[in-house]
Design brief:
Number of strands: 14
Largest sheet: 7 strands, parallel
CATH architecture of the largest domain: 3-Layer(aba) Sandwich
Strand content: 15-25%
Distance between the termini: 39 Å
CATH superfamily of the largest domain: P-loop containing nucleotide triphosphate hydrolases
Structural class: alpha/beta
Shape: globular
Number of domains: 2
CATH topology of the largest domain: Rossmann fold
Bound molecules: adenosine-5'-diphosphate, magnesium ion
Helix content: 25-40%
Order of helices and strands: HHEHEHEHEHEHHEHEEHEHEHEEHEHE
Length: 386
């Protein structure tokens, strides 16, 4: 993130917000915050692109809270003024936490609610009365609208966090249906670390003269993520993973696998060898998912094994290690995976295991990222006893 020439106080935020930021120990805005906050305050549509861990959440949360403090929108029953769409429930809860944290010192309480699938819909329906900030995954939001628990016809500000994911094929139908329910005149804020077709989708969203803010990484910038890659024979991967964790004395590790089945299998194997590990993925209950992530964050769980589900947006302060046990299919997912470490100026290490059969695909990933990692041999590593 680096030092920033201007303090938060020059960005046009309210006294209450500046005090909250000072209390939280946020001394200076990150580059994306420095550029996006004034544009959002000005009412512009914004497309903000900046790398993982660069503080994109606060770059929309802060000006939205400033809007809410000033505007005092009068809303019809069960209409929300601010809607934030996110791809996963984990991210919904995390964004909700940031809204709660940064609105703690606001003169009037800001009612923020996160809704997502996988849990009972009834409490969510009841909780939607008088909500100002609604954070939602698209599927559950459509269900709630069908139940008439919430309406989008008066949305003033729409945020798409992980915008490229929200606009890709997997969510396109749902997001289109939601957009059709919103007024044409609204402020659109799109944030992402990677861009795919999002640029073209802007027209689809009818972004109004958007301010495109892209924080370009300086080539000489020392990256906080140290990347390593090891060539490992498939049958040696399990022992090698345990060797890495044990010999490196790794205490907080996020391991990525390609499938939920494999995530379960890897976690089972680690536990059988006495390493505290759990798997989390779409097949687990909401409670188990929330608990597993909370335990890893708090340092109560040593290894969390997951699929690309968790790769998007999740912020774990001081996560020192990410291990790619299996490669992701797409290079973009690789960026999001390794971006779970090396956040907010804390260094981290991303380690990728590459089987001989993986090598061509790993080349493609590196080429797309424009980053080359030397493939280290593991033939000499004695895995006896691991
Ligand atoms: P992104 O969405 O860009 O991946 P996040 O918004 O999740 O990043 O922020 C990453 C981390 O940086 C969070 O832990 C957040 O609290 C911290 N952070 C954000 N803004 C600042 C700031 N101005 N100063 C210090 N830390 C910050
Ligand atoms: Mg984010």
């Amino acid at each position: 993130m680096g030092p920033s020439p201007s303090p938060f106080s020059s960005l046009g935020l309210s006294e209450a917000l500046l005090k909250t930021l000072a209390d939280r120990g946020y001394t200076a805005p990150t580059p994306i915050q420095e550029q996006a906050i004034p544009a959002v305050l000005f009412g512009k549509d914004v497309l903000g692109i900046a790398k993982t861990g660069s503080g994109k959440t606060a770059s929309y949360v802060l000006p939205i809270l400033a809007h809410l403090e000033q505007e005092r929108w009068t809303m019809s029953n069960r209409h929300v003024p601010v809607l934030v769409l996110v791809p996963t429930r984990e991210l919904a809860l995390q964004v909700e936490a940031v809204f709660n944290e940064l609105s703690a010192g606001q003169p009037e309480r800001v009612r923020t609610v996160a809704v997502f699938g996988g849990v009972s819909i009834n409490p969510q329906m009841i909780g939607l009365q008088g909500v100002q900030v609604l954070i939602a995954t698209p599927g559950r939001l459509l269900d709630l609208i069908e139940h008439k628990a919430v309406h989008l016809a008066e949305v003033k500000v729409l945020v798409l966090d992980e915008a490229d994911r929200m606009l890709d094929l997997g969510f396109q139908d749902e997001v289109d249906r939601l957009l059709a329910l919103m007024p044409r005149k609204r402020q659109n804020l799109l944030f992402s670390a990677t861009l795919s077709s999002a640029i073209h989708e802007i027209t689809r969203l009818v972004l109004h003269k958007p301010e495109v803010i892209q924080v370009v990484e300086e080539p000489q910038e020392v990256t906080l993520i140290r990347q390593r890659a090891f060539r490992v024979a498939p049958e040696r991967k399990g022992p090698f993973l345990r060797y890495l964790i044990r010999s490196g004395d790794m205490q907080q590790v996020l391991v990525f696998t390609a499938t939920t089945h494999s995530a379960d299998h890897v976690a089972d194997k680690l536990r059988k060898h006495g390493i505290d590990a759990r798997a989390t993925h779409g097949g687990k209950s909401h409670h188990a998912r929330t608990q597993a992530l909370a335990d890893l964050k708090a340092g109560r769980l040593r290894v969390l094994v997951t699929t690309d589900l968790l790769a998007r947006g999740i912020d774990i302060a001081f996560l020192p290690y990410v291990i790619n046990y299996e490669l992701p299919r797409s290079p973009k997912d690789h960026v999001h995976r390794i971006g779970r470490t090396g956040r907010a100026q804390n260094p981290g290490e991303a380690i990728t295991l590459v089987t001989p059969a993986d090598q061509p695909h790993f080349k493609v990933i590196q080429k797309k990222m424009g980053q080359w990692v030397m493939l280290e041999s593991t033939d000499e590593v004695d895995l006896q006893g691991y």
